[in-house]
Amino acid sequence: MPAPALLFPADPLNPHRPDPHFAWEARVLRGLGGEQYLVDHDALLAGQAEEAVRRVPRDCGPLWYRGWMIPSAGYADFARALAGRGAHLLTSAAGYASAHELPGWYGVFEGATPPSVWIPVRSAARPGPEELAAAVERLGGHGPAIVKDYVKSRKHEWHEACYVPDLTDLAAVARVVARFVELQGEYLAGGVVLRRYEEFARFDGVARAGDRGSAEARHRNGQGGARNGGAAASRSTASRSAASRSAGNGRAPAARALEARVWWLDGEPVLVGPHPDMPGQPAEPDLTEVRPLVRALGCRFVTTDLASRADGSGWRVVEVGDGQVSDLPRGIDASGLLTSLIAA
Ligand SMILES: Nc1ncnc2c1ncn2[C@@H]1O[C@H](COP(=O)(O)OP(=O)(O)OP(=O)(O)O)[C@@H](O)[C@H]1O
Ligand SMILES: [Mg+2]
Question: Which protein residue has the closest C-alpha to ligand 1 atom 24?
Answer without folding.
Answer: 246
